[in-house]
Amino acid sequence: MFETKITKLFGIKYPIIQGGMVHLSREELTAAVSNAGGLGIIASVNFATKEDFRTALKRVKKLTNKPFGVNINLSPSTRPVNNEEYIAILIEEGVKIVETSGRSPVNLMKQLKDGGVKVIHKAPGGVRFAKTAEEIGCDAVAIIGYECGGHPGPDDVGSLVLIRAAAEQVKIPIIAGGGIGDAAGMVAALSLGADAILMGTRFMATKECTAHPKFKEWLVKANENDVVVTQRSIKVPARSLKNGPSAKVIELEKQGAPLEELLKVTSGKLAEKVYFDGDLEAGMAECGQVVGLIHDIPTCKELIDRMVKDAQEIIWSKLYPMVNTR
Ligand SMILES: Cc1cc2nc3c(=O)[nH]c(=O)nc-3n(C[C@H](O)[C@H](O)[C@H](O)COP(=O)(O)O)c2cc1C
């Protein structure tokens, strides 16, 4: 059930991927998603030193014997690390899947391919980024629509059009993300031509995510209008929860404030107070519009099992009878 190009490519049971998340994609979440039949992705940016990163990979391997991936964030706005060194470590630790994001991984492709790693490149908002990923030899592309948590890219194109446009123009397998949080979104994405789905925001509201219970409670209560895009002025648009700090950033941007002023509000240290202390007004916390479809905090297994079961139900009990009218 749900055998797709992506499940075959990565040796996973279901076409459900947890996108890498700064602060939150850690060992427990990654392993829980992989153990549940999806693909968990740990974010290398969460580990300040190479030693911490290696220890984290070893821990994921203790927690799961299933495939999992590593997110390598190449965005200039991310804390700089030596990506070649981090990649050497993940190859030594036997990781076979990497999700790159933030900028083209062209300069890393040889190292990754020589190490036997399959590369997913994340293309937010634009089919042109997906085409580049294909041209440079990526094995799959994650096309991410405007609805997403984190960085929606420059073009403001929603998933409904973007997934279809990518499916029309790209031959490598497509992973669709941005605004997907349940079986209906999953079936829709597969119908549009995706070979798998990727979720970030939905996986924040799971038991294994290490976020503070108060932040998870907010995720359950919030609706789709409780998030906002900021930081367009510095060409790194980001969607996060609506709160005092995001209003402040919008105000600063209106006044033409320089990057240093914005950074005082957007800093990762302050975001961690939201995620890990549950202080919802402390800083900016990335979150997508799909927060409006989150109504509970299941385990990753409960979430994935439910999505698979509900997707079958939608296909067989809702869609199939519509066409089987003879
Ligand atoms: C809190 C948070 C942090 C994120 N950090 C990263 C990151 O470090 N690298 C990355 O490639 N994507 C990051 N993303 C994007 C997700 O991997 C994923 O593409 C996105 O969440 C999909 O849209 P959705 O939120 O609607 O599910 C982040 C998303 C969230 C919500």
Main sheet record: 8 strands, parallel
CATH superfamily of the largest domain: Aldolase class I
String of helices and strands: HEHEHEHEHEHEHEHEHHEEHHHH
Q: Determine the CATH topology of the largest domain.
A: TIM Barrel
Q: What's the total count of β strands?
A: 10
CATH class placement of the largest domain: Alpha Beta
Strand order of the largest sheet: 1-8-7-6-5-4-3-2
Radius of gyration from CA coordinates: 19 Å
**Poorly predicted parts:** none
| Subunit organisation of the chains | single chain
What is the share of helical residues? 40-55%
Bound molecules: flavin mononucleotide
Strand content: 5-15%
Judging from the principal axes of the Cα atoms, what is the shape? globular
The overall average pLDDT, rounded, is 96
> In the CATH hierarchy, what is the architecture of the largest domain at level 2?
Alpha-Beta Barrel
**Total number of domains:** 2
State the distance separating the first and last CA atoms.
26 Å
Number of helices: 14
Can I get a quick summary?
This protein is α/β, with parallel strands linked by helices and 326 residues long. It contains 14 helices and ten strands.
